[in-house]
Design brief:
two-stranded antiparallel ribbon; 2 strands; 13% strand
């Protein structure tokens, strides 16, 4: 190949830079980059089961257990939550309902509650055939649970019902010092 003169090299470089600087017309849409890797299986593995996932979450099933049940890796599950707002919203609402139900039930146990108890008695003749069935319903009352009451008071109102108010004050002071930078964060024993 014959050698090119320096003028020709400079002209080629100019044309290359000019082509790069040309902007697409307003009518042209910029090309979208195609995603690499395999396509997401969210539509087949998770989306059809959103109602079931919400129900399981309301019953206390963890996200790790959901991943195992639906054969989805934990990192892929996190990506599904990030990419799909409907999954994230479903999980958030279900966890909020679970939390509300648990607080409601723990309050009922703490103060006592009424319930019905049903017993069924079958009367048989000498041959073993069922002759008569008697169903009785009793109204009962569960007494207040002192342990649950103490737990709720300590955790809901720690300023008033803490077991060790001095320790609570020390922790508050330590947090203020950490915020000011006088104590390094994650200090043990605080």
């Amino acid at each position: 190949m014959p050698k090119q003169s320096k003028k020709q090299d400079v002209e080629k470089k100019k044309t290359k830079t000019i082509k790069k600087d040309i902007l697409p017309n307003d009518n042209e849409k910029p090309k979208e980059k195609k995603k690499t890797g395999s396509p997401s299986q969210y539509a087949s593995k998770v989306k059809p089961y959103l109602e079931d996932i919400a129900r399981y979450t309301r019953c206390g099933v963890t996200e790790g257990q959901l991943c195992e049940f639906y054969n989805v890796g934990k990192t892929q599950w996190a990506q599904y939550k990030k990419d799909n707002a409907e999954l994230n919203e479903t999980l958030f609402k279900a966890k909020l309902e679970l939390k509300t139900d648990l607080i409601k039930k723990s309050y009922e146990v703490a103060v006592g509650y009424n319930y019905e108890e049903t017993t069924t008695v079958e009367y048989k003749d000498k041959e073993g055939n069922v002759k008569n069935i008697k169903t009785t319903t009793y109204k009962r009352h569960a007494k207040a649970d002192a342990g649950m009451l103490q737990f709720l008071l300590i955790n809901r109102f720690p300023e008033e019902f803490a077991r060790d108010p001095q320790m609570l004050e020390l922790r508050k002071k330590a947090l203020k010092l950490q915020e000011q930078g006088k104590i390094p964060p994650n200090t043990e024993g605080i």
